[in-house]
Write a structure and sequence with these properties.
Elements (H helix, E strand, L loop, with lengths): L3 H41 L6 H32 L7 H17 L17 E4 L6 H8 L3 H7 L13 E4 L4 E5 L6 H7 L4 H6 L16 E5 L31 E2 L5 E4 L8 E4 L5 E3 L4 E9 L4 E7 L4 E8 L1 E2 L6 E2 L4 E4 L10 E8 L2 E3 L5 E2 L1
Parallel strand pairs: 5-17
Antiparallel strand pairs: 1-2, 3-4, 6-7, 7-15, 8-14, 9-10, 9-13, 10-11, 11-15, 12-14, 15-16
Helix pairs in contact: 4-5
């Protein structure tokens, strides 16, 4: 019997099945990505206003699940006790033994009512006493030492004198007096804090649609003083100072930032994500000309795109600061911005793409360490 036709048909079947499976996986991945983006958009709507509702709903569902599973276990115990021959649930039996022991112990303990301390709703004045230190005062009021230093314009080397009045915030963070033009988002960004945390602090006076009244004092939980801006490198202050030899790249690409690889290249994520919670400078991977520098509303946030003049382009996204503008020429290794978390981003990182003739390449295949 000749098995060649069967062998050929089997190979054709395997090829067709592999092609079908690949297409299905790709479609499933795209559907997953679009669903994820839809969920993220909902959670980010109105600056995260839907997030607490999502968390509360999740907790309620978990509680319902626990109650249902507990009811099923109890039902099993009742059945086993009512009908001979049905074995008792060992989990319920063990639980009954523990509860019995707890009842014996609890009968010998006098119940005590614990009254929780009401959280402070305002900034209070505190008069320094002999022997007080920043550390002891912070511990007494339950805030960080930095919070006391920032609010009272003190340094770590400052000496406290008895009788001095200190302002003590209700929580660790910083206080901000609202001025015209302030928004929850701008205040959070200024103090490197979470906008939702400011909204969630129950004693902040925030009107409808997040309106802020000039002169009102906002408590910014976990906030910190604005970072002193670093001076822009002199080579970016004037167009004529940009080196002219940066028109064309060498084709040899360097790592644009230091950090850990948070996400690798894939067909649904055509880039590398370099994560660094401390931020840091972003360097252009090869020489070229900046063709875009600004905000991209498709989720990339602050973005720079560089054309290297040899069919290659690179994209640097989610940046916190942009040091170059469109039309400028940059040399390999020049600092073009700072790492951040702008746009649709879940943390401080750099989204780095490399494309040739518009086709995305895996940066790991061409980057030199």
């Amino acid at each position: 019997m000749d098995f060649d036709p069967l062998h050929k048909e089997f190979l054709e079947f395997v090829k067709a099945f592999a092609s079908w499976l690949s297409a299905r996986l790709k479609k499933a991945g795209l559907n997953f990505e679009s669903s994820k983006n839809f969920a993220v958009d909902i959670l980010l709507a109105k600056r995260g206003a839907n997030t607490p509702a999502f968390v509360h709903a999740s907790i309620i569902l978990m509680a319902v699940g626990v109650l249902v599973s507990g009811g099923l276990l109890s039902s099993t115990s009742v059945i086993s006790g009512s009908y001979p021959g049905v074995p008792a649930n060992p989990l319920i039996a063990a639980q009954d033994e523990v509860l019995s022991e707890q009842n014996v112990i609890s009968s010998t303990i006098t119940p005590v009512t614990i009254i929780s301390e009401k959280p402070r709703d305002k900034i209070v004045d505190y008069e320094v006493k002999e022997g007080d230190t920043i550390s002891s005062i912070a511990q007494e009021f339950g805030v960080s030492e930095e919070t006391i230093l920032w609010e009272n314009s003190l340094s770590k080397n400052s000496t406290l004198k008895a009788g001095k009045n200190l302002k003590i915030l209700p929580v660790s963070g910083i206080a901000h007096t609202v001025v015209s033009g302030d928004t929850i988002y701008s205040v959070a960004k200024k103090y490197q804090a979470n906008a939702q945390g400011i909204l969630n602090f129950p004693f902040n006076d925030v009107g409808e649609d997040f309106q802020l009244a000039s002169g009102a004092v906002l408590i910014v939980p976990e906030g910190a003083p604005p970072a002193v801006p670093k001076p822009v490198p002199t080579q970016y202050l004037a167009r004529e100072n940009i080196p002219v030899e940066a028109d064309f790249g060498s084709g040899q690409f360097m790592w644009p930032a230091s950090g850990d690889l948070a996400q690798y290249f894939s067909w649904y994520h055509p880039a590398l994500d370099v994560s660094n919670l401390g931020g840091g400078p972003i360097r252009v991977s090869d020489s070229g000309t900046v063709v875009f520098s600004g905000w991209e509303s498709n989720g990339y946030g602050n973005t720079i795109v560089v054309n290297h003049g040899n069919a290659y382009t690179t994209r640097y996204a989610h940046m916190s600061a942009l040091y170059v503008s469109a039309g400028q020429k940059v040399s390999k290794g020049d600092v073009i911005g700072a790492m951040g978390s702008t746009g649709r981003s879940s943390g401080v990182h750099l989204h780095f793409e490399v494309r040739r003739d518009g086709t995305a390449l895996n940066p790991l295949s061409i980057l030199s360490r």
